[in-house]
Write a structure and sequence with these properties.
This protein has 649 residues and is α/β, with parallel strands linked by helices. It is globular.
């Protein structure tokens, strides 16, 4: 395995084009004497032009060692490495610098090439700085830096002679700070100082100490992150602490409690998705050969259904839609297909729905696909997905570890998510995928991911495709509808198993609450809709299905009410308020009001009451008084209903 370089200082990669020398001088002037960071600078220069920059910088900062590197340099703090014109820098696994000519397709993206290499090797120690310049070079590389846990600093476009490069990066949403060049220099020193004094953050931390952060984030943002690996969580924490100039975790916890905006920013860091168009091209070739053409050959007139959970800004979702469209067309088939794309990050979903991306991402897309399905702006700074492809996708907010999945799927693409999760959460995801796929259909994971201990559910496709799996026949260990609760006690492999809540205590609490309400017909359910306790004549309203007995409330209710009950429980999880549904059940002559409310004394437990009132007029249609916060859950259910109607047609 590659050894990560042992340096502990930041590696700052600065990119500039037209108008970039003046802000570079301002940035360097703001750095202290012999800064504890290695600085790499690349600008757009023709190969035949000799740069005067080395002499200019040596005259202004004699304490800085100005280096025009050749092959096999090792980085040192306090040094500025100037990339020769027409060249870029890459790093090997040991962190040794090499000067290379960029590939032909990246000849105008030397900044992107440098940033991508720095991101791969130095990860959270990497800092991208984008100064004045035309075009969008540096945008892809900045996204790479950010997705690997690094920091992105951009010159304020208002003060840049040519703001195109800074603006392009800002529009991706991957920027940490927008500053003047002098302020960027001071920020680099702050990051350096924080790294030098952050040894206590680098050592292993008891998972119990992270629970305070998870609880505060959940209270402030509504997101749960306690299913992340400790190392991932600590890297995300450390990144935000560096930006705030804090090196003690308790101090940062106080900041989170006092500043909701910082808590939201930390949550955004946790939700960073690693995605791009046709990432790892060789794996997409394998997907086409082993999966897509297999599916197309088997299909008659049935719709092909694909799900891309954790889709982030939608690049991979559009990639599979483009590939499916062209392969179906080449096969002469008019089979319909739909791609369901989901994520918990609403900001990322908004970007995905727009289908507009920086033009620099063109280099990631095979030319034949780009010509047919993308449109560029006149200056080629932006590109848009064609309408024919966008109409094939449905984007929805969805929590893979908490919400019921899409179903009857032919392909699931979930790459670079499982590597961030604890093993129990990984197992939950794999079980969910097995449940959601049709028999003998396919799962596409990241290159470093596998089904692990769930090998009895999937088989590897082909001897070389270690990341593509086929669903084996048989019942799924996952059961739906349900709500996976990834609590801290889910991390059993790192700490002793905590004692589960006493079931009898929950039953007693439910009984007491019901008696206080004059014993109506009601049930107490858990977060998975399993009935814990019956009260009164509930058999008037619930109808057992044929087949295996069930205690799941949703199985006992008419199908038209199930989405409403799900939405009610979702709403309670958001704001804790009671939701009501008025409807007519089992051909009764009375209107039934179903009230869903939380059981305060037992977390994740709910009371569902049934109350009758005589119908004076025609019964009202089923309605649910819900707030805007439930619309994401309802939207997913509506999307599923729309798809079912299409399938039936």
């Amino acid at each position: 395995m590659a050894r990560d370089p042992t340096t502990n200082f930041p590696v700052v990669a600065i990119g500039a084009s037209a108008g970039g020398l003046e802000p570079l001088n301002e940035l360097l002037a703001a750095l202290p004497y012999k800064p504890q960071a290695a600085i790499l600078f690349v600008q757009h220069l023709p190969p035949e032009r000799k740069s005067l920059l080395p002499d200019l910088l040596r005259g202004k900062r004699s304490d800085l060692e100005i280096i025009e590197p050749e092959n096999e340099h090792s980085l040192q703090p306090g040094c500025v490495y100037l990339v020769p014109g027409g060249k870029t820098l890459t790093f090997d696994d040991q962190g040794v610098l090499h000067v290379v000519a960029p590939p032909e397709r990246l000849i105008h993206h030397t900044i992107d090439s440098l940033l991508a290499s720095v991101a791969t090797i130095y990860k959270e120690r990497a800092v991208a700085v984008i100064l004045s310049g035309t075009g969008n070079d540096g945008t892809r590389g900045s996204v790479e830096i950010r997705s690997h846990g690094g920091t992105v600093l951009v010159q304020d476009p208002a003060g840049a002679r040519f703001p195109s490069m800074p603006n392009s990066v800002i529009h991706t949403g991957s920027v940490d700070l927008v500053l003047t060049p002098a302020a960027i220099g001071r920020e680099i020193e702050t990051i350096s100082q924080t790294r030098r004094s952050s040894a206590r953050i680098d050592v292993p931390v008891d998972p119990e100490n992270l629970s305070a952060f998870y609880d505060l984030l959940y209270t402030t943002t509504g997101y749960r992150f306690n299913h992340y690996k400790d190392g991932v969580a600590l890297r995300r924490l450390r990144r935000r602490m560096q930006l705030r100039g804090v090196n003690i975790m308790d101090e940062y916890l106080k900041i989170l409690g006092q500043e909701p905006a910082e808590a939201r920013q930390l949550a955004e860091d946790f939700m960073i998705g690693v995605t791009s168009f046709f990432r790892d091209p060789e794996t997409w070739h394998e997907l086409k050969a082993y999966v897509i053409r297999n599916l197309i050959a088997q299909k008659s007139d049935e719709s092909t259904r694909v799900w891309t959970p954790a889709c982030s800004t939608g690049a991979e979702s559009y990639s599979i839609a483009v590939m499916l469209h062209d392969e179906l067309e080449q096969a002469g088939k008019e089979v319909d297909f739909l791609v369901f794309a989901s994520d918990i990050n609403e900001n990322a979903l908004e970007t995905a729905r727009r289908g507009i991306y920086p033009g620099c991402f063109e280099v990631d897309i095979p030319p034949e696909y780009f010509r047919r399905h993308f449109v560029c702006s006149e200056d080629r700074t932006k590109m848009a997905i064609s309408g024919a492809i966008r109409e094939r996708l449905v984007f929805a907010k969805h929590d893979l570890l908490a919400d019921p999945p899409f179903s009857k799927l032919d392909l699931i693409i979930c790459r670079n998510l499982l590597i961030y999760l604890e093993p129990p959460a990984q197992h939950r995801c794999i079980d969910t995928f097995h449940y959601a796929l049709r028999e003998n259909r396919f799962l596409f994971l990241g290159k470093a991911e596998s089904v692990g201990e769930r090998e009895s559910l999937f088989r590897q496709v082909g001897p070389q495709c270690t990341h593509i799996f086929q669903r084996l026949p048989g019942p799924s260990p996952a059961r739906y509808p349900t709500s996976f609760r990834m609590e801290a006690d889910f991390r059993l492999h790192k700490q002793e198993k905590r004692q589960a809540p006493d079931q009898s205590a929950i039953v007693d609490a439910a009984r007491d609450a019901l008696l206080e309400r004059y014993a109506p017909a009601a049930v107490a359910i858990d977060g998975g809709y399993e009935i814990l306790y019956n009260n009164g004549p509930v058999n008037r309203y619930l109808t057992p299905p044929s087949g295996e007995p069930t205690h799941n409330l949703l199985d006992l209710l008419p199908q038209r009410l199930r989405p409403k009950i799900r939405a009610a429980v979702y709403r309670i999880g958001q704001d804790g308020t009671t939701a009501t549904i008025r409807t007519k059940l089992n051909r009764a002559k009375k209107i039934v009001t179903i009230a869903v409310s939380p059981l305060e004394s037992a977390p994740h437990t709910f009371i569902v009451e049934f109350r009758e009132s005589r119908a004076r007029n025609k019964p009202e249609a089923v309605s649910l008084e819900v707030s805007e916060s439930t619309h994401g859950a309802v939207r997913q259910l509506e999307d599923e209903l729309t798809t079912t109607r299409i399938d039936l047609r």
